[in-house]
Specification:
This protein has four domains: about 80 residues, DnaA, N-terminal domain (GMP Synthetase, Chain A, domain 3, 2-Layer Sandwich), CATH 3.30.300; about 160 residues, 3-Layer(aba) Sandwich (Rossmann fold); about 70 residues, Orthogonal Bundle (Helicase, Ruva Protein, domain 3), CATH 1.10.8.60; about 100 residues, Chromosomal Replication Initiator Protein Dnaa, Chain: A. Helix content is about 55%, strand content about 10%. The protein has 20 helices and ten strands. The strands form two sheets. The chain has a six-stranded parallel sheet, with helices on both faces. Strands 1-2-3-4 form a four-stranded mixed sheet.
């Protein structure tokens, strides 16, 4: 009878794979096993801690798959620790509204798992985030996501919060950044509101913290976050953290805090591969109702921009804006022309051109009327800060140098500063035409000088 159950289960698994996402199947349905088939009842065994969740969330799915294989009379019972749980055939309930008083601070409703584009460079992180969202405090705690800017860390962070808000049965969620946490803590210290601060961050079921690298070198905030982390973890609350690099590379962070960051599951996200870049662009085109003359425009964008999704979407916005203003067809020729200054070719072509950080610094100083000493100085005046960030951005885009090497060339700065500069510049270029023109002018000048 057990062999018969195995054969039946193998066919049901094929049905399940066709009905749910790969990550959902691997996380929740792959561990299931058929133990017996008597009459019209198929018994399925689930790991004890997840049995109730599998029954509630996937009961209808399992029964539909069983009926597709065994006929409409088939029923499913899910076994775990204790007595079997019969699957309810009632229609699934809609997502519950946010309960009165529930904490859902700063969640972006557009960042959901459904809107996240899966690819080989982010699949593991996505699966881990989904597992945490479905079983907060039980799956992986803490979950530490890291990767360069613009690859989807914040999207996954907010996806967890939005999922728990909808399906978490009233579980409270707080989502914030390390910078906002620091500012709130300092404000509480000076304003006498430490108790309210502790209640705000320790009285939740799920705490989501973005950009924890900004806790570095902030001794008092690190101390408070250490105790907040312990209080939540001991209470069984879920913590999810994001960073631009692994916890082990946060050299200026206290050892005990780094150890806690690494005590759960660590998952990295890398820049998207070409297929993922094309999927991102096609989804954005479909979502915004953009009419393309041909797909060559997307090919050009995907080939020229490798670094992150944010830059990819920014480039598409530039090309579409130019199409709207000029009335020209939105095709590959237009995309190549619009991106020629910012991205004069794919990553390999940029490397072959042999541009150096020194050349970029010289061109930046000339354009903005600065000396090399001013550009590399510690000055934070807008007159110097913007050209410096722009030069770092161009060095990242147009040379083969690593982030640490670029930082060293800019007065011994660390790679976090370079990443921050690149992020700020990309955001400014996407929204400020004057900034975009400056980048184009500098890029064209650099490549013209290179060919002279």
């Amino acid at each position: 009878m057990h062999d018969a159950a195995d054969q039946i289960w193998s066919r049901i698994q094929a049905e399940l794979r066709a009905e749910v996402a790969d990550t959902t199947y691997e996380l929740w349905l792959a561990p299931l096993r058929a133990t017996a088939y008597h009459g019209d009842v198929l018994r399925i065994q689930a790991p004890g801690p997840t049995r109730g969740w599998v029954s509630d969330r996937f009961g209808d799915t399992l029964e539909r798959a069983a009926q597709a294989v065994l006929g409409p009379q088939a029923r499913v019972e899910i076994e775990g620790e204790g007595r079997p749980a019969k699957v309810s055939r009632a229609a699934p309930a809609p997502p519950p509204p946010v309960p009165p008083g529930a904490v859902t601070e700063d969640l972006n409703p557009k960042f959901t798992f459904d809107q996240f584009i899966l690819g080989p460079t982010n699949r593991f992180a996505h699966a881990a985030a989904l597992a945490v969202a479905e079983l907060p405090g039980h799956a992986y705690n803490p979950l530490f996501l890291y990767g360069p800017p613009g690859v989807g860390k914040t999207h996954l962070l907010h996806s967890i919060g939005n999922y728990v808000r909808c399906y978490g049965g009233g579980a409270t969620v707080r989502c914030t950044t390390a910078e906002a946490f620091t500012n709130a803590f300092l404000g509480a210290l000076h304003g006498g509101g430490v108790d309210r601060f502790k209640e705000r961050f320790r009285g939740v079921d799920v705490l989501l913290i973005d950009d924890v690298q900004f806790l570095e070198s902030k001794a008092r905030t690190e101390e408070e976050f250490f105790h907040t982390f312990n209080a939540l973890h001991d209470a069984g609350s879920q913590l999810v953290l994001t960073s631009d690099r692994p916890a082990g590379d946060l050299a200026a962070l206290e050892d005990r805090l780094r150890e806690r960051f690494e005590s759960g599951l660590v998952a990295d996200i890398q820049p998207p591969d070409r297929a993922t870049r094309m999927t991102v662009l096609r989804k954005r085109v479909h979502h915004d109702g953009i009419e393309l003359a041909d797909d060559a425009a997307l090919d050009v964008i995907a080939d020229r921009i490798h670094s992150n999704v944010r830059a990819l979407e920014g480039a598409l916005i530039r090309v579409v804006a130019y199409h709207s203003l000029t009335g020209r067809d939105l095709d590959g020729d237009l995309a190549a022309e619009v991106l020629a200054g910012l991205y004069p070719g794919g990553g390999d072509e940029r490397a072959r051109k042999g541009l150096s950080v020194d050349m970029i610094q010289s061109a930046t100083c000339e354009l903005f009327g600065l000396t090399r000493e001013e550009l590399l100085s510690e000055s934070r005046s807008q007159r110097v800060t913007w050209p410096r960030q722009l030069a770092m951005y161009l060095a990242r885009e147009h040379t083969k140098e690593s982030l640490p090497a670029i930082g060293a060339a800019f007065g011994g700065r660390n790679h976090t500063t370079v990443m921050h500069a690149c992020k700020r510049t990309a955001e400014r270029v996407a929204t400020d035409p004057e900034a975009s023109d400056m980048v184009r002018t500098l890029s064209e000048r650099l490549h013209a000088d290179r060919h002279d």
